[in-house]
Structures are given as structure tokens and as C-alpha cells.
Amino acid sequence: MGLLSTVADIIRDLLIFVVAMTALLIVLIVVVSRMPDDNPLKRILSALSYRIGATAAAGAVAIPIEPIPGLDGLYDIAVPIVLIWYWYTFFRDVIRGKSHAPQPQQPHPPQSPAPPLQPPQKQIAHD
What we know:
It is built from 3 helices and no strands. It has helices at 2-33, 40-65, 71-99. The chain is elongated and about 120 Å long. The relative contact order is 0.06.
């Protein structure tokens, strides 16, 4: 019975961990949704959530595709390539965003209005 209780303890601990991570994710979603749209942290976390969702969807779609011959092999090759590219673009954009952070806009000094245009004057040729 010692082995069975150990397995039960591990499963219990894993379930507690999953519930805690789910609660943390919900809190993070609420906090991020209340941020202004131009906040860089919101943009990064939104892109991260899209990547996590795409990865989870690829895993969920893999289950019904496995029994289909031919399609499962194509799926097993194509999806990891697409996901690697998708995650690469995330890290590339995060690194690029840090190094090329937008500078705060400085107000431009008011410019004086342009002088009004005058009609062209006729030039008279002298002999």
C-alpha cells in the first residue's frame, strides 16, 4: 500500500499545482485586460497568450488526426515547423521591441505661419 499512497500523493500535488496555475492565469488575464492598449507589457503578454493558445490548439488537433494515415505524418512534420517559426517571431519581436523602444514624443515648437504668397511680377526686358 505504500506505493499506492505515494502515487496518490503525487497526483494530489499535481492537481493542486494545476489549480494554482489556473488561478494565477485568470488573475493575470484580468490584470492585463485592464492595462491601456499602448502598454508594452500588454502587447507582449497578448502575443504570448496567442502563442500559448496556438500551441495548445495544435496539441488538441493532433489527437483526432493521429488515426488518419498519411495526414498524421504530414501533421507531425508541418506543425512543429510552423510552431517553431511562430515562437521565433515572438522572441524576435520582443528583443526588437526592447532595443527599439519608442521614444517619448517631444512637442514641436510652434512654427510661425508662412508668409502669404504674392502674385509673380512681370519683368520688362530693357534694350
